[in-house]
Amino acid sequence: MKRILITGAAGFLGSHLCDRFIAEGYRVIAMDNLITGDLKNIEHLFKLENFEFYHHDVTKFVHVPGELHYILHFASPASPIDYLKIPIQTLKVGALGTHNLLGLAKEKQARILIASTSEVYGDPLVHPQSEDYYGNVNTISPRGVYDEAKRFQESITMAYHRFHGLETRIARIFNTYGPRMRLNDGRVIPAFMGQALRGEDLTVFGDGKQTRSFCYVDDQIEGIYRLLLSDYSLPVNIGNPGEISILEFAEEIIRLTGTRQKIIFKPLPQDDPLQRQPDISRAKEVLGWEPEVGRQEGMKTTFEYFKSLSREELEKREHRDFSKRNTY
Ligand code: UDP
Predict the structure, then answer these.
(1) Strand 168-173's sheet: what is its strand order?
(2) Is the C-beta atom of 188 inside 6 A of ligand 1?
């Protein structure tokens, strides 16, 4: 049986990856320090023979007993609110955490896939973004802690690949949504859905002309799965090219949820990228992959999921005050 370590396993993407690899017959070794992750996302797996969980912070030395065939490094805060609250940890998990996991991969002769991000392109001057674009990143802006950690992560991963011959994979993940996202964590989809559920006005930042391209989680997981099992070691964009402005998106959510709320405008966060759309030619060619779930369908499923949660569960999924749990 193949053994895979998944870091950030209690998070949004990490927990969906645990489900997928369990379903594929792997033994899943899940790891999370539970700062932004939530055990609720994986509690259904604890009863399984093929699943184990370590409460561990990967910025400290990582030890896993026994064989390992694959590592998926998905531990990281991933929302602008998180970067403001825990900037040092965001830098550390992308940099020191990645270094530890590369070291572990080398020791175990495991293949490692790291979760990179469209944020490596910063506020892009090229549109849509292909993997050959080097990006336009402000090192010292609030989101610079995430962007630069992820850029360093790609760099050290390629160094381990070239210098040590390690089998490495780099997924550049574009905005992804679906069940298990944290509500109200500042990201636009849970923000709008939470507002629609609570009967609050939808908050559009800036004039709403900035664009994003949203990928449904099942498509994202399929892309990551194929990339891990491919023999391709350069970065691959995984996202849905369907681009929409945030203002149009707010209108779409109002139509979809049937709420009677208005749209209100709030200040644009610093260095909020003006446009973002993945060029997925490489993923199509190398992985034979492209997204299958349209935005309307995906949003409906996601909204139904949030609606199905009890009030208590919803509150638990609200944004938490990390300062109280942060032990660094
Ligand atoms: N945004 C918004 N209202 C909100 C939250 C976010 O208009 O309540 C905007 C945000 O300014 C950005 C876009 O939606 O332009 C996507 O934001 P998100 O934080 O989801 O992701 P990222 O900026 O990292 O793509």
Answers:
(1) 51-55, 27-32, 3-7, 70-73, 111-117, 168-173, 236-238
(2) yes
